[in-house]
Design goal:
The complex is a heterodimer. Chain A is of the alpha/beta class. Chain A has 5 helices and 11 strands, in the order βαββαβαββββαβββα. Chain A has one domain: 3-Layer(aba) Sandwich (Rossmann fold), CATH 3.40.50.880. In chain A, about 25% of the residues lie in helices and about 25% in strands. Classes of the chains: A alpha/beta, B alpha+beta. Chain A: GO terms for molecular function: ATP binding; glutaminase activity; phosphoribosylformylglycinamidine synthase activity.
Chain lengths: ~230, ~80
């Protein structure tokens, strides 16, 4: 299985993401610069955290016009797993690949700490190795992580089981404690917490590891059937 | 034609603006107890070349695509033709 890590100018968790794939699942992984236009040959796409284009205007607003984003949308349409973490989540929201928007954290602080998350849906390609309702420890590091969506969208998210992670401790003010959501199809996940920073006990938690093993597990099952 | 465009971007009604809430608190603390709410908007100035027929359509598109996020923000604009002297 081959992962792509998209690099925007200002991405700063790209190396962590690359390392997480190597460390957690030992699969093939390559960086893809934002000016590229194709993701042919990749089986999964990772949008890392950071401050793409300096967060100018709004986080993710400018990155979503990068040439590579057309290829990311194509990969998503083809059903490939697309994971956006932190700034990657913001890019997915600005691209309308996921519903809602981000605001500044309610307390206006940059929040940088490990927080408990609840796995709300363990049937996705990203969470099939977790237990339903499991509490996991994953670090967050963001200033604009206050997820917003209107009542109608929230009802749809709930109805389609798109809320995948919630905060056990909601410090940023997110609507309905939302930490991570998928698209309706379930193959695009955006989350503010950083699973790629939690793949080794040495770093305080290895609870993020199962997210990567989930992706690989589902890919292997799918390819065993088709081959 | 050359135009000076001012785009005003504000929060949609019902969307809490954390910065506005913090400034409201601060104004109360320094004695302005009559302040009910504060909303922090942005103003973007654009100077552009365009035909008279298309300038407004272009500005609307810019707002929808990039300058504002219609999920949480409203926008309005003023378009002024630059008269060369």
């Amino acid at each position: 299985m081959k992962f792509a890590v998209i690099m925007f100018p200002g991405s700063n968790c790209d190396v962590d993401m690359y390392h997480a794939v190597e460390e957690a699942v030992g699969e093939e992984v390559e960086y893809v610069w934002h000016n590229e236009t194709s993701l042919e040959g990749f089986d999964a796409v990772l949008l890392p955290g950071g401050f793409s284009y300096g967060d100018y205007l709004r986080p993710g607003a400018i990155a979503h016009f990068s040439p590579i984003m057309e290829a990311v949308k194509k990969a998503a349409d083809e059903g490939k797993p697309v994971l956006g973490v932190c700034n990657g989540f913001q890019v997915l929201l600005e691209s309308r690949m996921l519903p809602g928007a981000m605001r500044r954290n309610k307390n206006l602080h940059f929040i940088c700490k490990t927080l408990p998350l609840t796995v709300e849906n363990n049937t996705t390609v990203f969470t099939n190795s977790y237990e339903q309702g499991e509490t996991i420890q994953i670090p967050v590091a963001h200033g604009d992580g206050n997820y917003y969506c209107d009542e109608k969208t929230l009802a749809e998210l709930r109805e389609n089981n798109q809320i995948v992670f919630t905060y056990g401790l909601n410090e940023n003010g997110s609507t309905a404690d939302i930490a991570g959501i998928t698209n309706k199809e379930g193959n695009v996940l955006g989350m503010m917490p950083h699973p790629e920073r939690a793949v080794e006990e040495l770093l305080g938690s290895a609870d993020g590891k199962k997210l990567f093993t989930s992706i690989v597990k589902q890919w292997r099952e799918k390819n065993a059937v088709t081959s | 034609m050359t135009y000076n465009v001012k785009v005003y971007i504000s929060w949609k009604a019902g969307v809490l603006d954390p910065q506005g809430a913090a400034v409201t608190d601060s104004l109360h603390k320094i004695g302005y107890s009559g302040v009910e709410s504060v909303s922090i908007s942005r103003m973007v100035e654009v100077k552009m070349e365009a035909d008279r027929d298309s300038v407004e359509r272009q500005v609307t598109e810019m707002c929808e695509k990039l300058l504002a996020n219609p999920v949480i923000e409203d926008y309005s604009y003023e378009i002024e033709e630059v008269v060369s002297s």
